[in-house]
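Notebook entry, structure prediction.
Reason for the run: the old model in the group folder had no record of what sequence produced it. Starting over properly, with the input documented here first.
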Amino acid sequence: MPDIKHFDPDTTLETVVRLFWRQGVASTGIQDVVSATGLNRSSLYGTFGGKQELYLAALRRYLEQRSQPMFRRLAEDERGLPAVAEFFDGLIEARCSGEYARWGCMVANAHAGAENSDPDVRTVLDQHHRELRDAMYTALVTAEHEGQITPSIAPDVSADLLTLLAYGVNLRSRAGADAATLRKTVTAALDSIADRAAART
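New structure, fully documented this time:
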């Protein structure tokens, strides 16, 4: 007779995402997961596996549900530098205010934690980095075509710089950096690659 689940695995996984995202995997025990979800250990293990498998499922869900939609919007936006500026504005807003303020980014948090030594976790982190960097690059190529960036600026190098800046925003916001300071840093970075002569014409 098939096992009938009396809970919604999708809803449960979303609860687990928020738990690992807020507390970090090292500070979260399986009893924390049990308490947050209201499920017993056997139900969790039977559906998701152990704590590490559950964390991986949560990390992948975070990438798919939260990171990738932002990356797609940036890559598909045809405004160039204004699209990049809007991406950072939204990032800072999400990290410094609202329901998830000071949680940082679950993926950036994983980069800074011991969990990044796990090969499966590293695969997700590398995928996130690649997709973020590719979205930045696409936006900067558009900016180049629109004459928005200094001719000597290489879009691929600037994409690397802005990708690292996004991780910095995520980590510093979790540590308590205020939105105004983060916005000043982002503005300085974008000003450093913008073609001021083109902006005045």
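Summary: The chain has ten helices and no strands.
The old model has been moved to the deprecated folder.
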